[in-house]
Amino acid sequence: MPVPLTLYLAAPRGFCAGVDRAIKIVEMAIEKWGAPVYVRHEIVHNKFVVDGLRAKGAVFVEDLDDCPGDRPVIFSAHGVPKAVPAEAARREMTFVDATCPLVSKVHVEAERHHQNGLQMVMIGHAGHPETLGTMGQLPEGEVLLVETVADVATIAPRDPTKLAFITQTTLSVDDTAGIVAALKERFPAIVGPHKEDICYATTNRQEAVKAIAPVIDALLVIGAPNSSNSKRLVEVGRAAGCSYAQLVQRASDIDWRALDGIRAIGVTAGASAPEVLVNEVIDAFRTRFDLTVELVETAKEKVEFKVPRVLREPA
After folding, report:
1. Distance of CA 76 to the CA centre of its chain
2. pLDDT > 70: percent of the chain
3. What is the pTM of this model?
């Protein structure tokens, strides 16, 4: 007799509007210009998505120098330093920028503060493509990176009275709040964003995890190990009291022995994980347990982003 198990399915989960748009951009570019279409960096951080696009004719590279000049190139959803499109234009390449509009908003914000004579502090993860892209909007030395509250004490701005801060869009809302508080304490004149930089999708997915955490014995987050927002969901689950919270790329990664004896499991997916992988995980539980699925929805998302005009026009 299969053991009864309740699976609490978090909503919102999975694809956000920026990821949806980025994938569409690659598909439409292949449709318009034929294969191969080059993509600088993984379009979104998910192996299943990247492999699917590769099969359709996308070639993923890490550098513009790896792209031939006569084929279209797409910049990933995470954003790129200003020098990258400038170089593509200099080489007269056809390029499409799939940067998430919410990341672009942070770029514009940084630019505006810079024009107003402010030095930027960026709250983000060193080496993450989004952080590199955002810092690369301004000249060297104009953006100081902080990753933790402790980092706030070590930065040495040019003028402590002329500072503004921005954040990576995929961070943990709670962790960032502590860093912002430390910045404001050390630099009372620091200017913050008009509106929170952490994107609506990141916030919504974290809130949904917090809602299910009190009733579950374990949490599975479907997402890639290099996906910042997916890793943050694991951290949020643990911080909300879920002692076993794990990141899995798909059903085959589940450690069933670790789940022995549980009666309630939570399942969510990072913003770059497709729903097909969520269904795969649910089916895997269904074959092993007498499964009841409960949807826990904390917000409705209706955001949509248009693809660039060049892809909407006929070839």
Report:
1. 11
2. 100
3. 0.95
- The amino acid at residue 59 is V
- Of 130, 147, 280, 313, which one is the catalytic site residue? 130
Per-residue pLDDT, averaged over 228-241, amounts to 96
Our CA dihedral for 182, 186, 189, 190, rounded to 10 degrees, sits at: -40
Residue 297 has pLDDT above 90, yes or no: yes
Q: Do 272 and 246 touch, CB atoms closer than 8 A?
A: no
109 catalytic residue (yes or no) = no
Question: In 3-state terms, what secondary structure has residue 76?
Answer: coil
> For domain 102-186, which CATH number applies: 3.30.230.70, 3.40.50.9100, 3.65.10.10, 3.40.1010.20?
3.40.1010.20
Q: Which CATH architecture best describes the domain 3-15+200-297?
A: 3-Layer(aba) Sandwich (3.40)
What percent of the chain stands above pLDDT 90? 95
* Same topology between domain 3-15+200-297 and domain 102-186: yes
Tokens for 180? 């912002």
Q: What are the distances in angstroms from CA 195 to CA 135, 146, 169, 304, 307?
A: 19, 20, 12, 19, 24
Q: 103: burial class by Cβ within 10 Å (0-12, 13-18, 19+)?
A: buried
Q: Is 43 left (phi over 0), alpha (psi -120 to 50) or beta?
A: alpha
Confidence band for 261, pLDDT divided at 50, 70 and 90: very high
In tens, the pLDDT along 61-110 reads 999 999 999 999 999 999 999 999 999 999 999 999 999 999 999 999 99
CA distance 208 to 173: 13
Listed in sequence order, the residues at least 6 apart from 54 whose beta carbon sits closer than 8 Å to its beta carbon are 60
CATH of 17-100 given 3.50.50.60, 3.30.565.10, 3.40.190.10, 3.40.50.11270 = 3.40.50.11270
192 pLDDT tier (thresholds 50, 70, 90): very high
